[in-house]
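Before a colleague's protein record goes any further, I have to sign it off. Alongside the sequence sits a line of tokens, each denoting a local backbone shape. I want your independent view on whether this chain really folds as the tokens say. Where you disagree with what is written, explain briefly why. This is what I was given:
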Amino acid sequence: MSRISTMFFATAALLMSALSLLSAAEPTADKDGWITIFAGKNLDGWKIAEEDKKSFSLQEGAIVAKGPRSHAFYIGSDKPFKNFEFKAQVMTKENSNGGIFFHTKFQETDWPKVGHECQVNNTYKSDPQKTGGVYNKAKVLEAPAKDNEWFNYYIKVEGKRVEVKINDKEVVDYSEGECADTRCVGEGTFALQAHDPGSTVFYRNIQVKRLP
């Protein structure tokens, strides 16, 4: 190999490494510490699991989750989220199921095995656990929001305590004890769930703030 070829490949490798680091760089926080991880323009910073990656789309500034089981994981930062505040606007269609995972990590198939799911379900008939609950840990059995209306979804995690508010009203205050499972409060990233082809859930204005 010639010297020029060697220099070319070395330069290309450095460029790819720099681009990789750039893609994992965390977005700049605003003056109050909030980071926008979805602003409505594209799915940059998100990675969609499952072979059929057609369950997530963009529509009028929102992520639309509709289709066979799939999850969109936030990969826009290499630094895991531990203590944080999270907020998003969510809207469900009738008989729809979805979820917002935290402290999870990317996996190519199946339901996420790491972290917790905060439920999105206002009228889905096959599951009694409704919007705002920490799935199978702190159940909400009466929906605090309505279909076809945008509602504010807020999650705060500090230590082992998880607080969830829907439209500024607290619906869950859950403190985790000893946890021997993988579905535990710990650290990781976020994921949005496409539950099934009959469910349609919209997500927009997704922000997170790291806490000490």
Notes: The CA atoms of residues 95 and 126 lie 9 Å apart.
